[in-house]
Specification:
It comes from Tautonia sociabilis. This is Flp family type IVb pilin. This protein is mostly helical. The protein is built from two helices and no strands.
Amino acid sequence: MNTLIARLRRFIKNEDGPTAVEYAVMVALIAVAIIVTVRALGTNLSTTFSNVSSALPSGTTS
């Protein structure tokens, strides 16, 4: 019984597991932020290029 309690205390004091989980959550949040930013920039750039394209003369002469 004492070995079980000793193992439980060691498990609770060990910080390797929670630290790895914290880093994984942080990496996931950063990845989501990057994806959202890239998608927003892509949409804005697409709209900007469409506006510029429609503002330019067509280039065909008759």
